[in-house]
Amino acid sequence: MDVYSQNFTVTLPDVGENSCLTNKGFLRMFQEIGAIHSGQFGYGLNDAKETGLFWIILNWKLEVFQRPKWNEVLSISTWCTHHTHIYFYRDYQVCNSSGEVVAIATSKWILFDFNKKSVFRITENFTENYCKDVDKNVFNVKMVEKFKEPENDKLADEYTVLKRDIDSNHHVNNLNYLDFAYEILPDNIDFKNVEIMYKNEARLGDILQFYYTIENNCNTITIKTKDSNKLNCIIRLYWNKQPLRLPIFLEDNSILQATILHAVLFKFLKLISF
């Protein structure tokens, strides 16, 4: 089961004001299916107490082609593309009931050894028992893993971490940072390209500061812990960005249509951009 697929229904907590699946909703589903897939090999959330190993996300990269609506059933596939001695790379593809690819994503993870308080180093024995790498990548270009902090960003807001923000790893859930970012982003813009880099965890009671800047079509939110100036997370959200890659699993007779559609949409977006 090197490529794992499962159906998900778009639920009310996953949609926004227009009843369409949000970027956070997509990432929640990816996080869910990744945990289920890993659990089949004995490295899921329910195995953590026995193994002492916890998955930690370092990067997300998401591109949305269509926004599914509430109660739609989606087929999500995930697989590990490659790994190093400490990093795992996992891709995702989302299809609607008609078989159309509506979103793709890639991610970078580590396993943290809670007992040793250190990053788990991948051994040959581990790779033999975990899912095999699949030589398929949803993006043509390599994911940017390290972001530079913007030089001219401005402090936009502050927030004190509450109990509701904390997850099973005892720090702020990675998806909550996207919620924080949307509180200071412009309204009525559908950001269909998202890149996130996580650096340091935030814990209960921390005061987070949100810095904001816009350059060209990129909105960047930099999140830091106030007392220590520790960098927690950088989020980049784009609009009017040319798709980086056509969906990889489209049927042959759909590729030409998809290529034409993407070209037309991109030209249209250029005409209405400001």
Walk me through the structure:
With 274 residues, this protein is α+β, with helices and mostly antiparallel strands. It folds into two domains: 1-143, Hotdog Thioesterase (Thiol Ester Dehydrase, Chain A), CATH 3.10.129.10; 146-241, Hotdog Thioesterase (Thiol Ester Dehydrase, Chain A, Roll). The protein is built from five helices and eleven strands; from the N terminus they run βααβββββαβαββββα. A hairpin with a 4-residue loop joins strand 10 (218-225) and strand 11 (230-238). The chain is globular and about 50 Å long.
Properties at a glance:
single chain; 274 residues; alpha+beta; Thiol Ester Dehydrase, Chain A; 2 domains; eleven-stranded antiparallel β-sheet; 11 strands; 20% helix; globular; disordered C terminus
Condensed summary:
20% of the residues lie in helices and 34% in strands.
Bulk shape? globular
Radius of gyration: 19 Å
Number of DSSP-assigned strands: 11
Which H/E pattern describes the elements? EHHEEEEEHEHEEEEH
**CATH class group of the largest domain:** Alpha Beta
What helical percentage do the residues reach? 10-25%
Outline the low-pLDDT stretches.
Answer: 243-274
CATH fold assignment of the largest domain: Thiol Ester Dehydrase, Chain A
* Individual helix count: 5
Largest sheet: number of strands, sense, barrel closure: 11 strands, antiparallel
What is the number of independent domains?
2
**Category by helix and strand content:** alpha+beta
Mean pLDDT: 86
Distance between the termini: 46 Å
What is the second-level CATH architecture of the largest domain?
A: Roll
Strand content: 25-35%
Query: Oligomeric state of the chains?
Result: single chain
- The CATH superfamily of the largest domain is identified as Hotdog Thioesterase
